Amino acid sequence: MANNRTFTMIKPEAVAKGYTGAILDRMVQGGFRIVAMKKTQLSKAEAGTFYEVHAERPFYGELVDYMSSGPIVAAILEKDNAVTDFRTLIGSTDPTEAAEGTIRKDFAESKAQNAVHGSDSDENAQIEGSYFFSGREMY
Ligand code: UDP
Ligand code: MG
User: Fold this and answer.
1) What is the second-level CATH architecture of the domain 2-132?
2) How far apart are CA 136 and CA 73, in angstroms?
3) Model-level pTM?
């Protein structure tokens, strides 16, 4: 499996606060090339499917409500070791535990509303990216 692409979303609270440009700049300055990008909004059902792996977790209902609450910016990003390097760039899930200079440290509101999504494996990057983008939207 290719290891040079990952999938990200700028989450609803970060888009609503006007952080889209600043967060995209961090990604580009971090060495990631934008392969595909769009602003869109998930329905509750779509958010539920996207986070299905967490269906048994206590935060699942709130997560689905939150992720469908407003527009997001979805993108496929390219770099060597994309998944791992992007997880480093965004920082820990909980911004209070995220390293200095990471996107979540600087832009996240809370552990739930944590500004950005980043895929956790090459396989999921492929699945998530192709859920949002057709081949003719990737360049
Ligand atoms: N989340 C939450 N509470 C938790 C753990 C996770 O609300 O205790 C939310 C948070 O928005 C997180 C998402 O669920 O980004 C997915 O959780 P995961 O453990 O996959 O974290 P991530 O991969 O996003 O760092
Ligand atoms: Mg995850």
Assistant:
1) 2-Layer Sandwich (3.30)
2) 18
3) 0.98
